[in-house]
Fold each of these.
Amino acid sequence: MSTKHGKHNTTFILFLLPALFAFSFVIVIPFLLGIYYSFTDWTAMTGTQVNWVGLDNYRIIFQDITFLHSFLATLSYAILNIFFINLVAFGLALLVTNKLKLVGLYRAAFFLPNLIGGIILGYIWQFIFNNAITAFGSASGLAFLEVTFLSNRNLALLAIVVVTTWQMAGYIMMIYVAAIQSAPVELLEASHIDGATYVQRLWHILLPLIAPAFTVSMFLTLVRSFQQFDVNFALTAGGPSGMFMGRALLTTEFLALNIFNTAFSFRELAQGQAKSVIFFLLLTVASLIQVYYNKRKELEM
Amino acid sequence: MRKKLIISIVLVFAMVLAACGQAPAGGGAAPGAGTAPATGNETAPPAQPPAGGPVEITLVNNKVEIDGALRNFAALYENMFGVRVNIQSFGGETPYAPALAAMLSGGDEPEIFVFEGYADYTAARDSGRLTDLTGQPWVSDTDMSFFDGQGRVVGFPVAVEGWGLGYNADILRQAGVDTSTMTGIEGMRAAFELVNSQLDELGLDAVVSMAAGPGMTWVTGLHAVNAYLALGLDYEDTTIIDMMLDGQVDETRLRHFAEYMDLIFSHSIRSTMLTGGFDQQLADFGLGRTAFIHQGNWVDPVFAELGVDFEMGYVPHAFLPENTPGIFVGAPSWYLVNARSANIDAALDFLNFMATSPEGHEYMVVHAGAVPAFHSVAIAPDGPLSRAVNVWSGRGQVYAWHQNTMPAGFGMNVLGPIFELLASGEIDVDGFVQLFTEAVASIGPN
């Protein structure tokens, strides 16, 4: 046992232990406990007997129209959000990799919204949508601006997209900036000399070169869109109400908010836990598909 | 060498685990009310802390707005009796329920915490956290205690709150409305029409200040619904709420109620109603843009802050054809003494002091701005709507609160959206009755 190799292995394992310890206590054990609780009638009150209820929670949540609706709402939001964030972020990245004056200032300015917490951002934008824009509408006589966007289910969803794009585009921009700056200049210059237009260079040379940045950015925006909670909570709180499959419900209640409400408004913690497990599976599948397709577009140099 | 290393690693692990495991082991709690004996009938707490170091108790409060007043009262109590009372307040951005759940599952057992409705009560009961308060000196001094199924008192009423339809007395006087006629739906309609016909003369934007949008469903889904559940019934009469818990509605009553809500919604400032928050709703009324407001006396402190000083009063939410003179008065929340905590006796003493001493009365009425739940309190509340609540309850014209007996979340998250749709005009009275009936039916099978 005391061969040189074995000794090293022990050392490696010892070095790994602190991280492993932290990981299991902060991630693995809570995660497994969460899965266990989703099969019980857990209430989070210590001292209450926790009973095994099998698949009851899952049966209930699969019949829950609000859960289905929140999935669809989250999906629409995620698709719009991924598209807009990446579009804006890439556009900004192209802008700030040009030889502009004050380029550092622009970068900082575009990045700044990302440093504001989502709750605060939600309240600020709620004021903008409810008061500033409507006041502008009445003052300028533009009737469609007089009624706040947040009272229309589609516009309210778009409003969240606008706010989260504004919040996150600067962050994703930095990833694109790094990728654009590390793209080999000679290829771009060669195509320039060969007479390629700006659009051709962008489309045929730069985009393929920075495909890995797209993989990362789309992954980040996908995960963040699905996990959206704070802006949702503060900006619309799920509203406005609307009809879906013959039921009145909150039309912009995304998955995370739906889980929160299940757990803490309806006090059904175990059902909330079951929804979280489903949420985890959905997010895993969605991100695996996304990474798989994006990876195929990347090229080896 | 290696053995030593492994032993030390195991030891470190053991220490960390021990540190994590300090929460008291769960289980073994007696079902039903706790078994702690009441501490006799002394009206003042012991002047000396019991042996074994200074006693400390913790009170978890769910109203951030009275945090300061509560802290001052706790400091006063510590000065007088040497018992330290830690106040922890949650609310607003740190919602109370998750924060309390986190505390409890983290192994903290505060001596006193707030519970609001039936769901909170069952959770506390099932986890063995209720203490029998029946023998406490303050029990005979209030009608608002929380009783468990066996007739034992398990909750100390934090305050009394009430609401009807609040009005601006100056505006109604100018408009020529006699509020004494507003005790049935005909009188309500007539008054609304009278005010509505003079909006410009009175400088009003609309008749009522109402909120029904997202985040305000506690006004519609809880308080408005209580009119359906309690108006015109005896204080102990639970017919309608019992029907609801069985999945049934009283259709005639529900239709009258829906028509009344439609009357309110169609006479409200639309933007405030659909997207405005609490502040907007209060500002509209406080600035004299509306004659009525659908809010309870807990808004008094906000009016004091805004410098609103006109005379106010309440008329009933009289949605029925018959006369129903009375507003909804009840206790919004109760303190329980946690049977699993360390200093039960000290907690009982503290509550007792709050309910029976002049200092406690002053704290409740003057500093916390509450309508006290105890008969012996001689100080009259100062806020205009609190005074209005006192007028009605002084005459005994009160109807009960049943909204907290609905299943958790049902009022705010299931019924709330239905009100919003009626307010926005997406559904009419028929649609409202139908959706409401279906929603109630969904409670039934359980």
Amino acid sequence: MNVARPLAQLIGELERLPGVGPKSAQRLAYHVLRMTVEDVQRLSDALCQAKELLKLCEACQNVSAEPLCEICRDARRDPHIICVVSEPRDIAALERVNEFKGHYHVLHGLLSPMDGVGPEQLKMRELIERLRGEIHEVILATNPTLEGDATALYLAKLIKPIGIKVTRLAHGMPVGAELDYADSATLMSALQYRREM
Amino acid sequence: MHLDRLKLRDFRNFEALDLQLEPGFNLIVGKNAQGKTNLLEAIYFIGTGKRLRGMRDHEAIRQGASSAHIEVTLAEGRTSVSLDIFLSGRKSASINGQSLPKASDLLGRVPVVAFSASDLPILRGEPSERRAFLDLHLSQIYPRYLTQFSAYKQALAQRNSLLKLAQKEPVEASLFVPWEMTMSVSAEHISLHRERYLADLKPEIQARHAQLGSGESITLELESTLAGLDAAEIADRLAESRERDIQRGSTSLGPHRDEWILCIDQKDARRYGSQGQQRTAVIALKLAVFRFLEQSLGQSPVLLLDDIFSDLDHDRRQKLIEIVAQEAGQVVLTCTDAAQAGAELGSHARRIVIEQGKVSE
């Protein structure tokens, strides 16, 4: 098929984005052509500015426009508790609950030798560095998957000897779920970690 | 337990099928390559999530269709269980129209035991085939087994990657620990279940063997690299074997190296059994598996017999039919020649004739 070169280039760039296949890339590209020049300019500016202005927070490694992110600068939050998560989007999930008032630390991934991810590829050294301050508790909130559990375990072994309390998010039945339709792994873990009433 | 109805859409060579099944014998007759086994395959698939023969998941889908649909109605409670298989290989399962989180959660809902001519060489095959045999039947009884088993395999793959990395550059020992922890907890669980299962089958297989007219004794033994060890001890063993494992680039001990053997009169049947002896032993084993599954679940699994009669002499065929008629609940069996099984089955069986992916009764 003969596609004008600039269009082919646009489609090619879009295709490289995660979750965008050839068809979606084509659809998006034609949509861009229909947009006004102003809208395209705004989109292009937003892309460039996001890349230019956003860095990782010096403390928690979350995405931030300032050297320190909003959460780390917030004086009302408790800096003595650090909740460790795998991805920046996990912070958004926890913040929506509006329950946790401590600080975060983003690892940017999980240990996975198969994918070539070791401690060096994660923000672990930065976390250990932060623990030199006055920290009372580290909550390990990595996903309850094999890699999430292994990463939590590795960190726990690293942090506990320092004398800091280490906790892990509980797992069990989702709220409002029916037993009959729960997957067996969740159900078993819920049974194992049941609590007295 | 028995199936009341089997519905297929775009499964293998069946475009659409709606078949009423009898609680007792269902004899599926047809020439070769008409789709007899595909019917058994469908029931097996929904019961175990696995293929009966070497079929790939997406090969379950009829040529030109985008997904295959299998649905069975259980006579008890009129529960309908269905499984959809998509070209991407994705599977989705539902019960009474409500979808389950994972297709593997179906396991155990429709208990089945299949027995086909291709099972006969199981005693001579690779150790991995014999392990797969144990794992399938264990996971039908204990859903937890499957969870532990996949956790083990995943952690094993991660540890093996670390071992290979360690051949090139130094890797700190603490990086091995989390994977070995998961592996040792799962390994203890897996070994314990495998050992107990073989022990539970032992008296049963002995009795079946005698019923089939063989006087020899049969025993089942698990050969394990970790026999009798608990999780903490297994973790120690894994830690000790790190150096050696780095050199070989893979994990040298664990359930993935287990082997089980069947002995006929104390002799390893893998090497010493005659073909006839092996065949009888495998039938006894299958019947024992069936019986044990029935006892564990408190209900009779559906028994699928795929073209096994042609491989048996008249005597064994007669005895097998006798045992099955006496003990099994619902049986679905295939046969190329109706007369061959018909005579022995008498009028018990309902005949279903398959021609070109269609049913004519």
Amino acid sequence: MTRGIILTILAIAIGYTVYAAVTKDKINIVQAGAQAPDFEVIDLHGEKHRLKDYEGKGVVLNFWGTWCEPCEREFPAMTRQYAEFKHQDVQIIAVNFAQSEFEVKKYVANMGMTFPVAIDKTKSVFTAYNIGPLPTSIFIKPDGTINRIITGEMTEGEIVQYMESIKPE
Amino acid sequence: MNKLLCECGHENPEGTTLCQKCGSPLSAEEKSKKIADMRYEGSAIRSKTYNKSIIDKIWNFFSSVKVGITLIIINLIAASIGTILPQEFYISVATDAEKEKYYSDVYGWFGEIYYALGLSDLYSSLWFQLLVLMLGVSIIIASIDRGIPLHKSLKNQRVKRHTNFMKRQRIIGEGKPTETREQTLQLVEQSLKNLKYNVRREDSSILAERGRFSRYGAYINHVGLIVFLIGVMLHLVPGMYVDESMWLREGETRAVPGMDGYFLKNDKFILETYDNVPQGEQIKQGVNVVAKNFQTDVTLYKQKENSVPGQAENLEEVKQYGIQVNHPLKHEGYAFYQMDFRLNEIKTMVFDLTNKETEQSLGQISIDLTNPQEMYTLDNGAQVQLMGYYPDFSGFKEGVPQTATQTPNNPAFIFKMITPETPEGETSFVAIQQTLEPEGDNIYKMKFSNVETRHMSGLTIRYDRTIPILIVGGIIFMIGVAIGSYWNHRRIWVEQLADGTIRLAAHTNKNWFSMKKDLDALTKHAHLPQYVDQQEIENNEHVETEKDGKTL
């Protein structure tokens, strides 16, 4: 009986350690279900975007860079879907990995991106969200919790599906 | 569970080898031995007796010493595999793709396999951590399984022991005292007390004991190991442990990973070398530059109260510091270490707007690669328009220049040169060692003139609140080792029979030589009959029979 208890305690301790170790490399405190850390960025037009101000709306937080090929592939689809979902209260904010204004502005113009794009000059938001590979898209629900975190390229179908799931009721 | 009934009438739990009450041998195996096996006082080690339910089976597996040793060996081998090639943490490339390429490039096929098998990130891997945890479980269960019966036996041991127990100890003595006195036992008691033994007497039986605490040494050091292991496990709890690295170029300000709200600016990286002419050992080893100092001068900034990530405008300066190797910047438990550096990354490129034929320059433009401008205007009215900038040019895709990374390893530009002579503008693609003119021959070109570089520092950020726990675990471990190694548990049983014969038996868990010195002092002072070492006798018999075997 006692031995059973001891074994159970040990099993739980091991289970926790293993679980924590396996998920540690991925987003640390930022994971699906957790509250998305508040942040503020200034987009290329000089407008401020603060996550807290988007309460009640869905937010797609996309992290990207000009050299990132998968980002380049998914931006057209994102731009198309933005046109639709914009009117359904889902916002896209694309945060760039501290590149020069020149590069980012040229890229945005070439791609025809219509959603807000901001440059994270000090990589502060990148660090807060513990971003590793690019592209990473964080889908945030209207209540501020993270619905899902996608690392890697998304198909247009997936973009539609995910944006649908963070649409306010 | 079956009970074992001893001759003396006491019922013992199944698996007991020496009767708890009198010490007589109970099992057939024990009875066949000349000298008693005194490990664990002959008490039942649970794991050897129960074997029915799944709990028993799991418990018995982990309590086995063989399993424990196997686990230790496997752990050692696994850990050593991670040292064959540098682990991913120490390689200064970021993405998975780059890592794969690195191992393959630098270490060839072996590196490729190493990376593919996940051995390049071994210590964070699931299976390795499971191995370590299994070892921890083995330590815990083996200790509990043996420690508790041992403690009970030691606590409840009787003073008077059965003749069979006495006669089967390694050291025995029997006979009349050499000087007949009534107070032999008194002398024995006194002598033993002088030898610092704890003496218990029941009628004509004496048990003298010394150093019982040393038996617990092993269990104490196991507790220390477990505390240490818990300390390591706590690294995974958020807020307890941070071990991050950051690359910071001179002039850059960056948010510090793992340290919310703080930013670090690299003011300057300094590399100093010794001036001397290479001599002696240095020449032999082909060293012609010896580093004197790696230093990064930094400024630590903090966001204002109630700020959120992304608000990096009005940062408050916290402190400035010159981080040298092994002299980290410390702040509120965090430490910034100078770990690595890269020299001479291109920061600014200077071009001359040059007439190809006359080689005359219309002026110079200086492009800051961190902030290229769309239009550069020269004094004489000529303009250079920057149409595109590609920091790490890697080729064309459908006519569009591509960049592999954001680092200016191979900068390339698309210029539109607008001069009085060419008011519509001429387009030129300029990369290192490569100029392309897509619209046919231009009159002007952008000629590379000069470059400014800057250095980059690699810093490590550490925060560790588990250190006190690790220290405590380590101290407990060392205390346990010391207790178990430097002290020993000695016991002497003496009884006087009705006819005055003295019977003596003695046992220690280690250092029989010293034990015998105690016994010699006792024998002399209390005039006891000479004792014998039964194991010596056995060994001599063995040696004799071997000798006989050889002569035959």
Amino acid sequence: MRSTPLLDIAHLTVRFGATTVVDDVSFSIHAGEKLAIVGESGSGKSITALSILRLVDAATTSGSIGFEGKDLCQYSEEQMQVLRGAQIGMIFQEPMTALNPLYTVGHQIGEVLELHEGLPKKAARARAVTLLARTGIPSPELRVDFYPHQLSGGQRQRAMIAMALACRPKLLICDEPTTALDVTVQAQILALLDELQREIGMALLFITHDLNLVRRFTDRVGVMERGKLVEIGATEAVFSDPQHAYTRRLLATRPERVVQALAPTAEVLVQGREVRVSFAQAAGWFSSTQFHAVKNASLSLHRGETLGIVGESGSGKTTLGMALLALQSLSGGQVFMGQQRIDNAERGPLRQMRKRMQVVLQDPFASLSPRMTVGQIVGEGLSLHQPELSREEHQRKVLAILDEVGLSEKNGQFGVLQRYPHEFSGGQRQRIAIARAVVLEPEVLVLDEPTSALDASVQQQVLALLAELQQRRGLSYIFISHDLAVIRAMAHRVMVMKDGDVVEEGETLAMFAAPQQAYTRDLIAAAHLA
Amino acid sequence: MSAVSLSPLQRAWARFQRNRLGYWSLWIFVAMLLVSTGAELFSNDKPVVARIDGQLLFPILNNPSEKALGGDFATPTDWKDPFITELLEKPGNWAVTVFNPHSALSTDYFTKAAPPAPPSAKNWLGTDSKGRDMLARLVYGFRVSIWFALALTLVGTTIGIIMGSIMGYFGGRIDLTLQRVVEIWGAVPELYFLIIFAAIFEPSLALLLVLLSMWSWLGLSDYVRAEFLRNRSLEYVKAARALGLSNLQIIRRHVLPNSLTPVITFIPFRMSSAILALTSLDFLGLGVPASVPSLGELLLQGKANLDAWWIIFPTFVLLTLTMLLLTFIGDALRDAFDTRKS
């Protein structure tokens, strides 16, 4: 048993009105320890973290938050302000919105130092440069005068870390610090945090939904479910021998490979030949330069096949997907749907081809029009492409497809047709989006990060649904994702993209076992697939 | 989960109802609108029904000439003429008048009080400088203002939505060009234009409506454009394009319904600014012809006759009340459409 813990939370309960978001949570962190709190969205993990700094508005909090033996719940707002940033630092998920766009990075780091340590401006700036250098930002003397938008996502998160560490806090709270970053950058940020933590000897509280990260990175882990801390223990122990049913379920949510073998005679459905997409970027008052989002990509997709396209943000994978759907005009190359060219098709034939090729998009909250009922959303394409259907036939078709995606009375969903998207959860909305695409009986579905916005367990269900639909209807998928685990579970073949180029292409398992290119090796290593 | 699903509009209405101030303001405003729209049934110098010498008359619909009632003139009957009042006092003769037995345009030539006359049992809010009943002037003036404002708002909002959606949905070169047009058009000095046109043409409500509409869409089109720019890049629009919907269908079914929040929220404020615009033009003498009862003209009279407080005070109260009601309604609408509130 060690000495008194640095942070000791006892019976913390947070309520918003009548809803309890955090329910009787108790845990403690010792100096120099790394604790992770994992859970799915809505489990209350972020609220728990924010309550430590008393940053939750409009909530009633009970219980005690002991920090170095003093109860923070008894502190006045002024005392808390002294503590925040100096004793307890915090890093947020979205580095773009967590930094003020109107001030330079150096100014913002310096402000913390001036505020808490009373450093004069010059000294604060010098310290800011050292801190930025410490976080591994190249040429920090230059970057200290940069505004947030001039830095890349990874650099911004480094600047955030520099800011959080400016006063050498005893506790650093990281709320999903790497979720918004690409996998290779994620790995670098984690390594940096690890190094700094050992150097300063601070404690780390990690809020995340990424189990992979928890396993590699933290000493202890707590699992939250619907506001309750259901399990807490040493990371290895929890992972190897989970006690609580929910933890077991959470750990079991690693995507299983569900790929069916392809018929050798399967015809080619979609073909892209030397597809190029570029955008004009304003370079000056009267000039513009070309930004090449996709440079010379060729691909073919067979009936019943899933082609995975992976890459980090900005690699052009989504642009390529949109180009294949003829939603993005090409600057070169051709796209064929069967024997027909789709990229320069006239309106009439294009509309016919649209029926054969549908799309499911990433964000289930943005992809359904909030002012239409589910019946209208799913039925819209049907009334466009099959206007000859009678009212009853139309409705029967919509209901049948909703049943197929698991939203019918059989599944305890009543009156789905008349309900609006806001009444459904993220996973259910994604099912509606799938129903909208599949009701037209397409042959090809472009899936643009269809599960990225979903929790792990929901992601599993949606992937299972997609696999089932593929099998039953012989659908071909173009599966765009940054998540290698998902791609490995779903795809027959994989295409790796980087900066608009196709880096590598091949059969999924072969590529994962023996990647040919250095970039692919990096990606696979960073993803830590077990 | 409730048994009946509420559409977003129904939920907004439920939130609107929760704002008591805005809710009641809306009903008071609707009541004022109805009363003033049926102004002839509220304030009229002609009786609804009258019986003269065994004849049943409906002067409000069909005013007989004085000759028909045994008088000397072939002109329509003035029911305040001493000859008529005497006639009505005869046994068997009677007349039922509306709530306020004066019209906005008729001068009572037979009253003893010199205009402008202070409030009395006969003219509850007094008369204006031409001896016309103030209450009647207010009701008819309010009707002109409110319907003018409604028409101006409707036209301005429609043009604003159309222009804003074209700029926002298509973007790029179309947006760039139209934006410059909007900027140039917005820089035209509107007031001078109005003064020049008032000098050239006979001022009328229709002319004013056309002239003011030419500028009233500018502000709104910016908001609609911004909403369209935001909404057109959302994924449900992409999904609709993938379904094969045409641009017009996407605008009508997907983008427009989701872009209307600023439009609806702004309507009450646009109404009040339209009322004020008409009132100030009338006050300056650039507005409607003198024969049309108008609140601005009453304010001008009030300024000329500062000792006759009964002219300026009720007009001021009516204008302020209208502005307040519209502001309260606007506030409630803004809250109702604020998606951050549950």
